[in-house]
Specification:
By secondary structure, the chain is α+β, with helices and mostly antiparallel strands. It has helices spanning about 25-35, 100-105, 155-165, 165-170, 185-210, 215-225; strands spanning about 5-10, 15-20, 45-50, 55-60, 60-65, 85, 90-100, 125-130, 130-140, 145-150.
């Protein structure tokens, strides 16, 4: 999806997760820094760029190594007594977004304040998009990336594309007719209608059971039985 004010592209995301064991963090980070040839981010949300990859601290003892497009993963040996590493690239996809309207589009998708210091260029935030965990990475004044699970990439890219069209336009038919409801709205409406119908039926049944039968009707039935 591309427009003068907002663009979205989807691509692979070569990614390595590295984590140190509790109690060995100091030695683990010292060895990792020497192996990568750069300092590590000091706190959660900070990033460090170095020679074709980005080091992101996503948790106190966990780092993500995000490789640039075309970059080859360097041989990274982690002492198993200090920590471990695992490739996440096969299960992740990278969304690249840019444009003057990017802040407004993202405000309809994720709970991240574009103007907050925690979301400044070079910062990363773990958040969720439509209940799916994602990593938000601010890459510029009007640009960012989202690292998302591959299995949800299609639905999430569609969700963002709809938000990019505009909140009002996305819910309007091309002919300018009645507003178009989203599938979630339809599902909630159907569930509410079914619940209301069950409650109504249950209430009518209880009222019928509680209502005494007229005496005249009972006498009539008795007379018919005697005849």
């Amino acid at each position: 999806m591309a427009s003068p004010d907002f663009s979205l592209s989807v691509g692979d995301c070569p990614l390595i997760q590295i984590e140190g064991w509790d109690g060995t963090l100091g030695q683990f980070e010292s060895n990792l820094s020497a192996s990568l040839g750069t300092n590590l981010p000091a706190s959660v949300g900070e990033t460090v760029r170095h020679k074709g990859f980005l080091v992101i601290r996503v948790a106190p003892r966990r780092l993500w190594l995000a490789l640039d497009d075309g970059a080859q993963a360097s041989s990274l040996a982690v002492d198993p007594d200090l920590g471990c590493s695992v490739s996440l690239g096969e299960g992740r996809v990278r969304f690249r977004m840019a444009g003057a309207d990017i802040a407004g589009v993202l405000s309809r998708c994720i709970a991240v304040d574009w103007c907050a210091p925690a979301a400044a260029p070079g910062r990363a935030v773990l958040t969720s998009l439509h209940h799916v965990p994602v990593l938000f990475l601010r890459t510029g004044d009007t640009a960012c990336e989202l690292v998302v699970p591959r299995s949800f990439s299609r639905s999430l890219s569609d969700w963002i594309a709809d938000a990019g069209v505009g909140k009002d336009q996305a819910r309007t038919l091309p002919s300018g007719g009645a507003p178009r409801s989203c599938p979630l709205d339809d599902l909630l409406s159907a569930c509410g209608k079914a619940t209301g119908e069950r409650r109504l039926a249950g209430g009518i049944g209880r009222r019928r059971a509680a209502c005494p039968r007229p005496v005249g009707d009972a006498d009539e039935d008795h007379r018919e039985t005697e005849q």
